[in-house]
Amino acid sequence: MIDGIHPNSRHSFSILFVCLGNICRSPTAEAVLRHTAARVAPRLALEIDSAGTADYHIGRAPDPRSQRAARERGIDLSGLRARQVTMADFMRFDLILAMDRDNLRNLQAMSPPDARAELRLFLSYAPQLGRLEVPDPYYGGAADFAEVLDLASAASLALIASLQQRAQ
Fold first, then answer.
1. Distant-in-sequence, close-in-space partners of 82: CB < 8 Å, separation ≥ 6
2. Is 25 a catalytic residue?
3. C-alpha torsion angle, residues 121, 84, 31, 88 (rounded to 10)
4. Which CATH superfamily is 13-167 part of?
5. Domain ranges in the chain?
6. What CA–CA distance (Å, rounded) separates 136 from 99?
7. Is the pTM value of this prediction over 0.90?
8. Considering 19, 65, 83, 94, which one is annotated as catalytic?
9. Which is nearest to 19 in space by CA: 145, 126, 109, 104?
10. Which residues contact 25 (CB under 8 A, 6 or more apart)?
11. Mapping DSSP to helix (H, G, I), strand (E, B) and coil, where does residue 19 land?
C-alpha cells in the first residue's frame, strides 16, 4: 500500500476530485488527469470522476472559462456535468482529492466511519509547488483558470507516478 490507497485490483485505481460547485477546479483536475494518464501512463487503469460538496450547479457543464482554458491545451471538458458528492462515493473511490482545505473539512465531516476512500488534498502530491490548495478561479480572469490547469498538470504527473509505483 502506498499513500493509503487500496486499489480495487492490483492495477486499478478510482479517484474522485472535489471542489465546491464542480464547475471549475474539480472537472479541470478530472480532465487533466485523464488526459495526462492517457499520454504518460496508458496502461494504468484509472476510474476518474469529479463532484462538488455543494449542490449549486448540478447537471451543468463546466464553466465556459474553464472549458476555454482547457481547450487551448487540447483538453475537452464539454462532456462533463456537475454533480454533488454522495455517501456512496466514500465507498466507491480509493482516493478522494479535495481542491482546498474547506472542501477537505466538508468531506471529512461527511465521510462515514467505514469509508474506503482516503481523503487528502490534491496538491499534497506535488509538494514542489509550495502550496496545498488549488485557488478558486470563479471570480477571476483567464490567468486564474490557466493557473488551475498548471497546478492540476503538475499534481497529476506526481499522482500518476505514485500510482505507477503502487501498480508495480
1. 21, 22, 23, 27, 51, 52, 56, 57, 58, 59, 60, 61, 62
2. yes
3. 80
4. Response regulator (3.40.50.2300)
5. 13-167
6. 9
7. yes
8. 19
9. 104
10. 17, 19, 99, 134, 136, 137, 148, 152
11. strand
2: pLDDT confidence band, cut at 50, 70 and 90?
Answer: very low
Q: What whole-number distance in Å separates Cα of residue 72 and Cα of residue 154?
A: 17
Task: Please report how the helices 142-167 and 25-40 are oriented relative to each other, as an axis angle in degrees rounded to 10.
Answer: 50
d(CA 126, CA 112): 27
Residue with cell 478510482: 14
42-88: per-residue pLDDT in tens?
Answer: 999 999 999 999 999 999 999 999 999 999 999 999 999 999 999 99
Please report, as a single letter, which amino acid is at residue 121: L
CB 147 within 8 A of CB 135: yes
Catalytic residue (one of 24, 25, 65, 89): 25
Catalytic residue among 24, 83, 136, 166: 136
- Based on the residue annotation, tell me whether 19 is a catalytic residue of this protein: yes
